[in-house]
Amino acid sequence: MNTIRIGSYYEIPQMDYEQPRQVTWRDFYDFRNRVIRLLRIFGTAGPMGEVDLSADEEDQPCFSAEIVKKPVFFVVDDMYNGHDKVSMVECAPASIDAVVIESLAAMMQVFPGWRVHFALGDSGVVISSDAVLVGGRRFWDCGSVVELSERCQKSVDFGPSEPLDDSMNQLWRSILPGGIDRTVQFPLAPSRQWAEIIRSLEVMRSHRKDGCLTSFAYDQVRHDLHPYTRRELLDRLFPDLPAFSHEKLTAAKWNIQKDSGMALADCTSVRDASELIVQIWSVLERTSGNFGHNEVVNWWAGLLHEVKDPSDWLRKALEDELRIRVRHTNPLFELSALFGLAWLGTHDIALLVDDAMTIRPEWKTNPTLVKWLENLRMKRRSYPDRNMLNTTDKAGQ
Fold first, then answer.
1. Residue 82 host element (H or E)
2. What percent of the chain has pLDDT over 70?
């Protein structure tokens, strides 16, 4: 096949979400089915299987009965939206090689405009029929599919850490909530990592009709940062977060959660992890008034998703700190701790749920909440429903 061009994340085309819907559920799941079939040549893919495309357009998608636990390729089953032609996949970098890339690119010859977006934890790869767009320090100066494959098979060489310049700290804080518009003058980059970030931001901004970058721009540059730099940025940010406006904090929330989860995954000792967990709890307690009930309850389950597969000692440190909050005086924090413990697979989650229901009898008046807590007891699910607390305020404050 033709040589596949290697490009950068910031080349991902900007979608006009004001135009009419471009993708039906049948379009999306037809493409996802093809991705699932192809990836299963190289490893397990799921957890949800293929969708029956023979159903009526008005019906809900129906997945095959098979569910793959802990697949090599986690293929997101939710349709992203009605505009972006993309299938999202999470996997370890080592699961990506030249054959996987070339096979997907060949398959997409009959899906013009579609792409597969691989989230690799420390980097990202977006594959289309004619190009591979990469992001993150892992792929700096990568020039071919073969070289990309080689980079995926080894750890990232981050090199030594560097001092954090105050101007870069301020730049980072403006990226988190999406506070960069065409009037912002970028400072002079003091190092390679910041030069890469500023270059990407400049290009992304030039592609925006309004010249404004949203909080999603950070996704394109997050992995250019050294882990120590990201941690120092967080450590400086946490004490100042309570002073952030409601709008700014709400816009930055997801990025803060994601970086917090990644920082936990990067911890090298129990003491470091425990101190960071306490910091994160303190931030949540001091800023929760800016978030909806569901956002607070989802906090730890969402954050732990970014930790991915914690080591035994990190899992224990997380469990120890979350268990303390299961008896929190605030029921939202109590629920957040419960769902976090369920996500970790805590062995006595059923007993913890029963104890919480005894202490909080008012929860029994919320049928949706009761259903999800029962799912926790049975270890069927560990992630809260978005509408769980919308039917009543009795589970809230």
1. none
2. 94
For 21-76, the pLDDT digits (tens) are 889 989 999 999 999 999 999 999 999 999 988 877 666 778 887 889 889 999 99
What would the two tokens of residue 72 be?
């090599």
What would you measure as the largest C-alpha separation in the chain, in angstroms? 65
CA distance 122 to 157: 12
Mean pLDDT of the chain, nearest integer: 91
**In this predicted model, what pLDDT tens digit does every residue of 231-280 receive, in sequence order?**
999 999 999 999 999 999 999 999 999 999 999 999 999 999 999 999 99
- Which residues does residue 132 pair with via DSSP β-bridges, in sequence order? 6, 127
Helix, coil or strand: residue 140: coil
pLDDT in tens, 60-116: 778 887 889 889 999 999 887 888 999 999 999 999 999 999 999 999 999 999 999
Question: Residue for token digits 């970086």?
Answer: 259
**Which residue is associated with the tokens 């990407």?**
200
CB-facing half-sphere around the CA of 270: CA atoms within 13 A: 8
Token pair 């940025």 is found at: 233
Fill in the DSSP letter of residue 104: H
The answer to whether residue 396 scores a pLDDT higher than 80 is no
AA identity, residue 287: T
Torsion, Cα of 46, 48, 54, 56 (10° steps): -140
CA 13 to chain centroid, in Å, comes to 20
d(Cα 139, Cα 148) in Å, to the nearest integer? 7
CB-side neighbour CA atoms (13 Å) of 354: 6
Query: How many CA atoms lie less than 13 Å away from 368 in the CB half-sphere?
Result: 13
The rounded Cα 217 to chain-centroid distance in angstroms is: 13
Q: How far apart (Å, rounded) are the C-alpha atoms in residues 329 and 336? A: 12
The gap from C-alpha 181 to its chain's centroid, in whole angstroms, comes to 24
pTM: 0.86
Residue of 174, 171, 205 whose CA lies nearest to 188: 171
Give me the residue label for tokens 């629920």.
335
Distance (Å, whole) CA 334 – CA 94 = 38
The answer to whether the beta carbons of residues 136 and 123 sit under 8 Å apart is yes
Residue 9: closest CA among 154, 118, 144, 97: 118
> Which helix (H) or strand (E) covers residue 134, if one does?
strand 131-135
- Rounded CA-CA distance 385/216 in Å is 23
